[in-house]
Amino acid sequence: MTRTDNGKVALITGGGQGIGQAIAERLHADGFKVAIADLNTATAGAVADALGGKEGGAIALEVNVSDRDSVFAAVDQTVSALGGFDVIVNNAGIAPQSPIEDITPQSIEKIFSINFNGVVWGTQAATKAFRELGHGGRIISAASQAGHVGNPGIALYSATKFAVRGFTQTAARDLAQYGITVNTYAPGIVRTPLMEDLAKKTAESAGQPEEWGWQQFTHGITLDRLSEPSDVAGVVAFLSGPDSSYITGQSIIVDGGMVFN
Asked: Binding residues for NAD(+), per the UniProt record (predicted)?
């Protein structure tokens, strides 16, 4: 099907691989111009090039989501290069193991600076841009199934995702007056490089084969299969589009039926 430009612009952090890449590809297919922002400019550039580059409505940007100025700069560059701004997807994140006894001030600071602070900076930067452009917009952030139910072995990751949900609920109330909706998507176990690394490290630390590591995270999926990044991208596409205009402050779980609320 031929792509038709819908006149909207979206910025996706962590867009160079995994879920972020799938989101960028889906939104672009839906007609958005997309800014693919990532700390890894090589992967971001490859995704943008595959979507046709700037002429095709896709650009790559370098961003460090733990750095407030970097996030604001990425939004400004998006507005300047693509001629507008309508959606931010705060997708970038890390998921290290964090056994309770091994947690340190440094490990707390590192993961919160990326998974939580990056959402705060993205929300601030997007709100500023939307208001300057004189219209509302969509702020969509990565939560997790582990932000609805604490998962074993990843206490800090779960904590950051619970924090993202709480921040999102308040932001939804505070920003509604500007026509801005604020929501999260909460993936389960998705076949991505980040999840592959976590499964391998979980298995290695237990002296077990890699398949055992996957099993620690995948048991209890009602639909009996791992999620693909495109499954999550479909939910983000919904939250980015007109059919979700009356939804705000929510966390949509897309985990194949692991958590039921």
From this structure: 17-19, 38, 91, 157, 161, 187-192
Question: CATH class for domain 9-189+228-253?
Answer: alpha beta
Residue 142 contacts by C-beta under 8 Å, 6 or more apart in sequence? 14, 19, 89, 90, 91, 92, 93, 115, 119, 161, 164, 184, 185, 187
In the structure encoding, which two tokens stand for residue 202, read together?
């979980």
Please indicate if the annotation marks 242 as binding a ligand.
no
Give which of 192, 257, 246, 229 is closest to 89, Cα–Cα.
Answer: 229
- Render pLDDT for 17-59 as a digit per residue (tens, 0 to 9): 999 999 999 999 999 999 999 999 999 999 999 999 999 999 9
191 assigned binding-site residue: yes
Residue 247 in contact with residue 255, Cβ under 8 Å? no
Residues labelled as active-site residues: 157
225 is in an annotated binding site: no
218, 173 Cβ separation under 8 angstroms: no
User: Taking Cα atoms as reference points, which of 164, 125, 172 lies closest to residue 142?
Assistant: 164
Partnered with residue 10 across adjacent β-strands are 34, 87
Report whether 18 belongs to an annotated binding site. Answer: yes
DSSP H helix total and E strand total for the chain: 9, 7
CA–CA distance, 71 with 62 (Å, rounded to integer): 9
- Tell me whether residue 188 is annotated as binding: yes
Query: So where are the chain's domains?
Result: 9-189+228-253
Q: Name the pTM for this structure.
A: 0.94
Say if residue 214's pLDDT is above 90: no
